[in-house]
Amino acid sequence: MFDYEEIDKIVDDKWGYEVIDDKVYVTEDRDISRILLRVDKAVRNFRLSDYTLNLNKSSKRNFGELIFKKIYFGDKKEIKTSNKQIKCFFDCYLSMRGFKKRGLFKVRAHSPHITAYLQWMDDIERSVVSFDKIRSIHGETVNYNDLEHRIYKCFERLSEKLSEPKFQKLILKSKQTTDKNYRSMLSYIDKLFKKRSRLLVVRVDLSYKAEIADICRRASFTMADHVSEFEQVKADLERLLRNRRHNKIFRGLLGYIWKLEHGVLRGYHYHVVFFFDGAIRRGDIW
Questions:
Q1: Which of 48, 88, 133, 142 could lock onto 42 through a cystine, CB 3.0 to 4.6 A?
Q2: Is residue 221 part of a domain?
């Protein structure tokens, strides 16, 4: 399986641009993918026993005040703590909140760790709002140390969630599914190579035109609309593959592997690998 460094290289290669009418457009997909990977890694590595809010000595404010400004006012200043995981939790906070408010996570199925982070965000948000209400009533008698305590409680609840048997089973199931698909893919490729001594392997990305994938068009979608779109996307690929016998492009095709993804700007798209008989087909670029 891939480690985070390998995944990061794939992100560089795979996301972040669209080719439309022979012009290259830079998109947000790469940035969002990088942030999601950072969040997933931070939650995986989080241990409550390592929890610390120690700030750099140069900081003149306490942690509670900095967090309040970041969450309540959207302060983009980096919060430098001695714990890398805690630092990442708050470094990614505003970006994740922005993506969430724009509805970019509506049709995405996240890893259990990213889902836990989103729930932690809701917990932090409620804690900051609650602190602000109490402070508006009691004034300066309520200091930012109280907010620090509330923040700790949020991490404490996150730690409890991560250690729950139900969550651990979810992690195991997710890993087993991934491993099963991976092993199945390798077995499938091995069988193709046993069937033919030489294969022409072609990777193709299949996506929709800009007006179809337009995020503004999908912003007002109901859940029924999302389900309908998803079913249509599956039907489109099935139609393409069903008609391959009548399409000369697929002459000599022995097999294929596909993966469906959902990008922020490009919407649904497929990454497909086609395996052709190398004795019949040459010239993969054509």
A1: 88
A2: yes
Q: What is the pTM of this model?
A: 0.73
Residue 100: its pLDDT value, please? 86
Give how many domains the chain has, as a whole number. 2
**Which positions ≥6 away from 211 have C-beta within 8 Å?**
217
Residue 174 lies in a domain: no
Q: What is the mean pLDDT of each run of 10 residues along the chain (286 residues)?
A: 48 48 58 88 93 66 86 89 90 92 73 93 95 87 88 95 94 90 94 91 88 70 83 93 88 92 80 92 75
Structural domain harbouring 127:
4-163
Asked if the structure places residue 220 within a domain, the reply is: yes
Please indicate, yes or no, if residue 188 is contained in any of the structural domains.
Answer: no
